[in-house]
Amino acid sequence: MTTLALTGDVMLGRKVAEVLNDYMRPEEPWGDVRPFLDASDLRIINLECAITDNEQPWTRTPKVFHFRTQPSAIETLRTARIDACSLANNHTLDFEEQGLLDTLEHLDAAGIRHAGAGRNREEAADPAILTVPADHTRRVALVAYTDNEPPFAAGTDRPGTNYLPVSLKPDVLRRVERAVSDVREMGVDTVIFSNHWGPNMVQRPREIFRRFARAVIDRGVDIYYGHSAHIFQGVEIYRGKPILYDTGDFIDDYTVDPRLRNDWSFLFQVSVEEGTLERLDLTPVKLSYARVDLATGGEREEILDRMERLSAEMGTVFTRREDALVLERS
Fold first, then answer.
1. Does the predicted model carry a pTM greater than 0.70?
2. Is the dihedral of CA 209, 313, 9, 19 positive or negative?
């Protein structure tokens, strides 16, 4: 059995970058969650910033926030043994194409795989193929997409993201089907579909998003890994496959909404056997300034209650076990 650790958005830029440069050790942003990451076979994040020295921000279209971190922040990813990053999101080109090219170079040099952005459209669509360390015969594919920031989309000879609208149109779903077919031909056991999609601060996915996620599963995906809302959404099990509609935030410096609580989230650990879901563990976490830790006390209970309620609306019933939510294949 292979256990995959999936997190919400990891933003190492802006004030997080400042404290990493000034006084915070590279491992500190992961807090006491790091042993849980270590216990997993593979660790995958959505990296929501550029890793670059380039100081020229994107100005071709209006954009309020620009996130970048210094190349030294790669050590923060290495200390958590991050295996792969999704780069298909609305901040990958915050510091122009050069910022993306630098990010690719730094990740490659650190041996961290990536998917969802590249030097051209073809490379942006390439999967990240991961081999499970404990069993080199087991391979996992990460394919990554975003419906955010259409101007960031890669072109025939232009760096950018792997843009895909949320749509049930045949040409959109054919792209998904081809991507899954291609990685299956590589001998992959498990396919993860990462999608940075939809609006911020929305607690429940709209119906078109639910229909799209199910259509993706219908086309052979094993795990749907969503993010973008900055708050976690409920989990649906469809045809035995987990749909994580939104995994929320994980590391950032953001202002906290007192009602929606974007400082509450989970570490999502998905255990699979040749693509079949065996167990899903959701461990509640609490974000503080530039750091994530295990949630405790009353806050932990509120986080668990919210996820139970949102998931029950989708027909998913978890068991509480050791301060986490657990779902096992019956």
1. yes
2. positive
